[in-house]
Structure formats: C-alpha cells, structure tokens
Design a protein that fits this description.
The chain has helices at residues 7-18, 33-39, and strands at 22-26, 40-45, 51-55, 61-65, 71-72, 77-85, 90-101, 106-107, 112-116. It has 122 residues and is of the alpha+beta class. The strands form 3 sheets. It has a 4-stranded antiparallel beta sheet with strand order 2-1-6-7. It has a 3-stranded antiparallel beta sheet with strand order 3-4-9, covered by helices on one side. The longest helix is centred in the first third of the chain and has 12 residues, at 7-18. The mean pLDDT is 93.
Length: 122
C-alpha cells in the first residue's frame, strides 16, 4: 500500500520555521534560546520574503532561506549550525559545510535548504 501525506501537513513544520525572525550562525548547537547569544557569531534578521516553500526535487517539500549579504562576525569561531528562532521557539540544523569566521570581518552565507521528505516504509 502506498504512503501519502498532503503538502499542507509537510508545510506545517516549514511554516513554523519560516515564522522565525532571527537566524544565528553558531559554534555548536545551542541547547536553549538562552544559549544562542553565547554560541552565535553571525546574526541576521529574517522576514517572510527570505523564505520560499516549494516541491522538493525528489518529493517532499523544500524550504529555502535566501542567502545573506555582508554580515559582520561578532567573534572568532567555526560555525557549524544555523539556528532559527522567534524569541520563544528555536530550530537548529547542522550547516552542510562549516564556516570559519574572524571577528569584525564580513561574510555572506549561502542559502539554506531544509527538506521535509515524503514518508516511506521503515
């Protein structure tokens, strides 16, 4: 029997993420929102225009977060997580490639893609 899940169901999680107004590039994965400030070396404010939800290339739903232009690093470190938050909830993902940053230097991180895959049998 085939599995089916509606786009609206998959989009629900992606819509929660796209409601986040902050994107922090962090050294390690913060455990709580309170931990973000210590781990973040690049911070960006997001709006709805920064997010696009589409069909994934091989199924599922894809959230793309637009690339950044010139963000100044607040400290040195190897950034390996992107952390989205709205001041109440957070969503952290590992970056596909880490980024070494130096304080007071400018960086333009590339777009971020988050895929909600269609279900399959276990």
């Amino acid at each position: 029997m085939a599995y089916f899940i509606s786009d609206a169901f998959l989009d629900a999680t992606l819509n929660d993420i796209s409601g986040c107004t902050n994107l922090n590039y962090c050294v390690g994965q913060p455990a709580t929102i309170a931990d973000i400030a210590a781990a973040s070396k690049l911070q960006r404010t997001l709006t709805g225009a920064d997010y696009v939800i589409t069909d994934g290339a091989a199924g599922g739903r894809l959230l793309t977060v637009a690339s950044s232009t010139s963000i100044t690093a607040t400290g040195d470190g190897t950034l390996d997580h992107a952390v989205f938050d709205d001041g109440v909830s957070m969503f952290a993902i590992p970056l596909p490639q880490s980024l070494d940053v130096i304080a007071n230097q400018s960086y333009a991180p590339s777009e971020i893609k988050i895929l909600q895959e269609d279900p399959s049998a276990a």
